[in-house]
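Marked as duplicate of an earlier ticket. Keeping the data here for the record.
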Amino acid sequence: MASEKVTVEALPRILEGDAAVKLAGIDVDGMLRGKLVSKSKFLSVAGSGFGFCSVVFGWDMHDQTYGRELGISNAANGYRDLIAVPDLASFRRIPWENNIPFFLVSFFDPDTREPVSACPRGLLKVQLDKLHAKGYGAMAGAEYEFMTFRNPDPSSSSPAAFLQQNPPQQLPNLTQGMFGYSLTRPAHNKDWYYDVFDTCIKFGCDIEGWHTESGPGVYEAALEFGEIAAMADRANLFKYVVRSVGVAHGVVPAFMAKPKQGLPGNSGHMHISIVDKAGKNLLAREEVDENAQWADIAGLSDMGRHFLAGLLEGLPDMMPLLAPNINSYKRLVENFWAPVTVSWGLEHRVASIRLIAPPTAKAGATRFEVRVPGADSNPHFVMAAILGAGWRGVERKLAIPCPPLSKGTAQGSDTDKGERLAKSLKEATQRFMREGSVAREVFGDAFVDHFGGTREHEVRLFEEAVTDWEVKRYIETV
């Protein structure tokens, strides 16, 4: 990251000696879409923006145009250009590509110059602006689990080809067995392990904690806590680092929510707190409330209680943002350490929302950990959903709708009385898109119709697919 504030006027000096710049925006699936441009081109558009084909919002993660054309990019508007404006504050250099300069861009409508409704960075900014208008801000952290595989011949097969050409259950994991928090497993692949850590520092997405998780070849990284918009950028770029560093070591990561049947899935937990201009945590209560409705919220401020209520009320309607893919719901099943109901609790790792507060944490570290998202989720959308739903609770002064999850209660058990979250992307999308949903209230119709349409596309493709399970079960017997 830049150590000084980057301005248009300072760019010629900062980029002295560089011949080109790499630019990238983020699509609805959280994928980076970008290009290399000459330095002269970049300097000419750095302040005003440049044309970028809108088709990145008109096709899916495999560049197939949506079966039902959506509003932002379609044949009727000629797949016209959007305006991509470089965010100079996002300046980095890519250490594995000869330190070439790198900037993220945000997408704007060419007619109105307003953020494109489906632009992930723009969606989060709109939600954050609601807090800024009141003099508040938000801090966030991200934790990602992912499974790793060993490509036996990286020179002959790209990571994508390797993953797609091998049967999933036969992919060779980087390490075998279940060994969370192992000190010895990373030593087996220490060059890759430390290269990821060091490269994240150089690329401005520093890792706070980095360890093995329970599962063959599964690792978890906790990124350093920071301002929420910058945190979302760093969370997205972390995946870019892991994939890029892995190429040189023959290590292929998978951020799928559930890469292999019968094993725990890959989570993408998000932490969030609200702060004032001075950085004071506004979720913490000044004095413990001895008369609190539940002991779990004795140290939580009134704002924090309303924010929690908003999260709980909005969670079922926001599910496609937290679990955006068909495979996401294979992780969200009972008995696999993944939340399946609307639930919360103080230091409760089985609940959908874990409250972290005194006495186990300092007051200044009071925050919510939303444990529903998987590693496959788009961090900008996840943080926008959390911020939007929570702030709606603050504005409406909502009351917490359900008691905390009792310790020892398993998700989805007879003693867990919370509302069951969607069991499929189809069910989640229908609720997300329905008239009067919390998502429509918070994000508006334009975004909900567009993103919901992209999820309907995923559902349709899956419903038309003939899976290995179907072939194995029926090809001989029916």
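See parent ticket for discussion. The chain has 15 helices and 14 strands.
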